[in-house]
Design brief:
- The protein is α+β, with helices and mostly antiparallel strands.
- It has 2 domains: 94 residues, OB fold (Dihydrolipoamide Acetyltransferase, E2P) (Beta Barrel), CATH 2.40.50; 314 residues, Bira Bifunctional Protein, Domain 2 (BirA Bifunctional Protein, domain 2), CATH 3.30.930.
- Helices cover 31% and strands 23% of the residues.
- It has 13 helices and 15 strands.
- Strand 2 and strand 3 form a beta hairpin.
- Helix 4 packs across helix 6 and helix 4 crosses helix 7.
Length: 449
């Protein structure tokens, strides 16, 4: 039996999912629209719990109290609706205006562009797209955590302030005043290194939180502040086992969002990407494609498609290459590209013994229409090899002695991966700009609110 809620009223979603009530009910929410007729008026009330809200039927005199955007409390009876848009509607007997709405309210009953909604970010969640994104972020987060719990991972909380640059790219935000910590300190670009600390004691761990990159990029795929899901696990025997975990993580999260947010998914399928649902269903029914970096370069070199950037072995794959591989080359299926050249990847990735360390045991997961969604690798667990790679990279050894110590004291084979949560949301919604799928976006030159 479900535990009763501590709240005095149910959400609109909760009421509509229950059996029809025999007694009057109370709803609270915001008016999306009001349509007046001679005898009756119809108002759409939304409290954020579902996409469509609920239609309220009012007498003409009652409707005069209502305006779009106002916050109201309505009491009445839930009755079967003759319309096709909803199964039930509310016949209102009492109205209470909790918060009036000024005539300057910018949202009306029409479609507003994504750019306009972003310009009034403090009101963006009151639109269909903004509220659907938030519900789906919640469901995706829920799905991720359910997956890790089912696989016996432990959630750990890694620091946001760090003296380390995990990626080694130098794209970090420094902390001032500099004398507070008596050493240079930065906002974290990744929780991976700290998660490895916990994994070497706890076995399987994950962290889910914000990271920061000082990338002066204005592309649709980059933010200065975004969320990462980062998993680290010991006792993996090979890279394929890590790919299996990653694939299951993405598929199970996708499946959970499809189940939990059917109306929101249908909304995005209708208004954003009409192939969205078919593509997502396909992705959870088939295994992901797997190919090595060397094989990927060969595919790109043989492609009839003209690329802006030519591909040669040893060069980085550009966004156009990643999208081609996942779309045209692999028939719109997610694809793992593995075993990149060591010179292209960070110091902590495990060197492949088969080619004398020329490549590393790593992967990027590329998604149709998105490009890279997940990056991961086996971690270098051999102290002498890791030490040599760090010296070759010119790293300050004193700053990373603790990381080397993990290899001195009971080192274990281990690996991990990171999922860009906003890019996952692009995959799930069909939207094409990460600024549309984060509640309050920050990018170069923009940090409003």
């Amino acid at each position: 039996m479900a535990k009763p809620s501590v709240f005095p009223t149910k959400t609109i979603r909760g009421l509509l999912n229950d059996k029809p009530a025999a007694d009057p009910v109370t709803i609270r929410g915001w008016i999306r629209s009001v349509r007046q007729q001679k005898q009756l008026s119809f108002a759409n009330i939304n409290d954020g719990s579902n996409l469509k809200g609920i239609q309220a039927i009012l007498t003409g005199s009652d409707a005069s109290k209502l305006s779009t955007g106002a916050c109201v409390e309505l009491k009445g009876m839930l009755v079967a609706s003759p319309g096709k848009e909803q199964s039930q509607e509310l016949q209102v007997s009492e109205i209470k205006v909790l918060g009036e709405c000024d005539n300057s309210y910018p949202l009306q009953k029409k479609r507003h562009s994504l750019e306009f909604m972003r310009s009034i970010n403090h009101l963006r969640a009151r639109g269909n797209t903004g509220s659907a994104v938030l519900r789906m972020r919640n469901a995706a987060s829920e799905g991720i955590q359910r997956f890790f719990a089912s696989e016996e991972f432990i959630q750990v909380h890694t620091p946001l302030l760090t003296s380390s640059d995990c990626e080694g790219a130098g794209e970090v935000f420094g902390i001032t005043p500099s004398d507070f910590f008596k050493q240079p300190v930065y906002l974290t670009v990744s929780g991976q290194l700290h998660a490895e600390i916990m994994a070497t004691a706890m076995g399987r761990v994950y962290t889910f939180g914000p990271v920061f990159r000082a990338e002066p990029s204005l592309t649709s795929r980059h933010l200065a502040e975004f969320w990462m899901v980062e998993a680290e696990m010991t006792f993996l025997d090979n890279l394929d086992q890590l790919l299996d975990v990653t694939e299951a993580n993405v598929q199970e999260t996708t499946r959970h969002v499809l189940d939990r947010c059917a109306d929101d998914m249908a909304f995005f399928n209708q208004w954003v990407d009409k192939s969205l649902l078919a593509r997502l269903e396909k992705s959870i029914q088939q295994p992901f494609v797997r190919m090595s970096y060397t094989e990927a370069v060969d595919v790109l070199q043989r492609a009839k498609h003209t690329f802006q950037f030519p591909t040669t072995w040893g060069s980085s794959l550009q966004s156009e290459h990643e999208r081609y591989l996942a779309s045209a080359a692999c028939c719109d299926r997610p694809v793992f590209v593995t075993d990149y050249p060591a010179e292209l990847k960070p110091f902590y990735m495990r060197a492949n013994d088969a080619d004398d360390g020329r490549t590393v045991a790593c992967f990027d997961l590329l998604m149709p229409g998105i490009g890279e969604l997940v990056g991961g690798s086996m971690r270098e667990e051999r102290h002498d090899v890791l030490l040599g790679k760090m010296k070759h990279a010119g790293m300050k050894m004193d700053d990373y002695q603790w990381y080397l110590d993990l290899r001195k004291y009971g080192s274990a084979p281990h690996g991990g991966y990171g999922i860009g949560f906003e890019r996952l949301m692009l995959w799930l919604t069909g939207l094409d700009n990460v600024r549309e799928v984060v509640p309050v976006p920050r990018w170069v030159g923009h940090c409003r609110y």
